[in-house]
Amino acid sequence: GENKLIGDLLVLGGATLYGISNVCEEYIVRNLSRVEFLGMIGLFGSFFSGIQLAIMEHKELLKVPWDWQIGLLYVGFSACMFGLYSFMPVVIKKTSATAVNLSLLTADLYSLFCGLFLFHYKFSGLYLLSFFTILVGLVLYSSTSTYVAQDPRVYKQFRNPSGPVVDLPATSQLEPSVTYTSLGQETEEEPHVRVA
Questions:
Q1: Does 43 map to a domain?
Q2: Taking the model in full, what pTM does it have?
């Protein structure tokens, strides 16, 4: 339309909020419960999507010529979204929210292929350039391991055996904790602190 700037800003805002949502999802899935996450996103997602549908799309929904084929398309779309949101927490727990979002960017190319074969779209070579740029970013991101806060009683690879370790008293609950360590040269005055 004529308001391209507003459209671009809305797309950027939506993408930003989606990224924040996935980072929060990673935190919940790693530290709390995947089942609780799926239950809450289903409950609140249905509620807010229903309100959005009632406000923004109610006129278009009434214009739909309902028959069994359109109903089947809606059921298929719902099944795909159910599968996506059911498996996404599993993938996020095994990789990260960043890797999942980078992988989802490749979906645009698959939709382009469907458009080429089904609807005979014309496309720009920039699609292929963007696809390979995304793949390079995904490979570069996945090739280097990142530091993850873990329970120091299980993961002791970050301990520096040359310095003294100060143990703090452990609580009765087993909760995720952080091992603090320095990757550079350390002085004698800086003892290592291990939080349990």
A1: yes
A2: 0.55
